[in-house]
Amino acid sequence: MASPAASASSDSEMTHLSQRDAAEIDQQLMGPLGFSVDQLMASPPRPPSSPALSAGVISSLTPWFGALCHVRAGARGAERRGSRCGDLPGNLSEEFDIIIDAMFGFSFHGTPRPPFDDLIHRLVSLSVIGNSAKRPAIVSIDIPSGWHVEEGDVNGEGFKPDMLVSLTVPKLCARKFTGPNHFLGGRFVPPPILRKYRLHLPPYPGTSMCVRIGKAPSVDISSLRENYISPELLENQVMSDPFDQFIRWFDEAVTAGLREPNAMALTTANKEGKVSSRMVLLKGVDKQGFVW
């Protein structure tokens, strides 16, 4: 029978697990239900129960997406997966865009010991930097390191991650998370576990392997302005042949990863000057003109 801490108080409230129930569910998955650690690690919707194992998976996958992953301290499996280990640079803000906090899991208790205490202190220093200053985003896996699994940041001296990725079922400490981005990964919880622990989990959209918890952060539309002043747009920088210039811009759009760069707004006017605009697909372009 699930403990009161593990049960949602109503159908509309998501379940948040106690430390004990989180451990029991983990044992059930890798015991009677037959999941192995390798299975949980290898399949995207089946996140490893240990954030450290998640760090190993992340370090092995990020190079495929063109990112350099620097693994520090106790990320088990990192060396086996060929990740680069070593001391972190002095200024994290200058070296990294994202920091993934995967030091501890839900089984952790007590006070962090070296070298983790120093790493946590550095994350605290980063999390208090103002939004106007450049700093890496901090993403915590399952439990922000240093937080109590059930009570959260008890003394108020821990770091505040920008994103929390809960694994399988959010833990009780996730209720204390106030950051802008909270996601859940674990689209594999079998019906026996759902029934036994009376789990109330959000539906996953489509074939997505993760789901956002809570509302997306509000956006100040006025802050999305860009400065488009560039010498590339000045008349003396434009190529003499307009078709060559168009092809150059089109190639740059493709290289930048713009979705459907061949979808364009085409505007024409008839003899009376009546304007008509429509969305068309570009099929080809050469010196003779465009094919729509």
UniProtKB/TrEMBL annotation:
Pfam hit, one: YjeF_N
Keyword presence, NAD: yes
Top enzyme class: isomerase
Low complexity bias: start-end ranges: 1-12
Keywords for the protein's UniProt record, in alphabetical order: Isomerase, Metal-binding, NAD, NADP, Nucleotide-binding, Potassium
EC number(s) from the headed UniProt entry: 5.1.99.6
This protein's GO CC annotations: mitochondrion
Reaction catalysis annotation: (6R)-NADHX = (6S)-NADHX; (6R)-NADPHX = (6S)-NADPHX
GO MF term set: metal ion binding; NAD(P)HX epimerase activity; nucleotide binding
Region (Disordered): 1-23
Every YjeF N-terminal domain range: 1-201
Protein name: NAD(P)H-hydrate epimerase
Source species: Zizania palustris
Organism taxonomic ancestry: Eukaryota, Viridiplantae, Streptophyta, Embryophyta, Tracheophyta
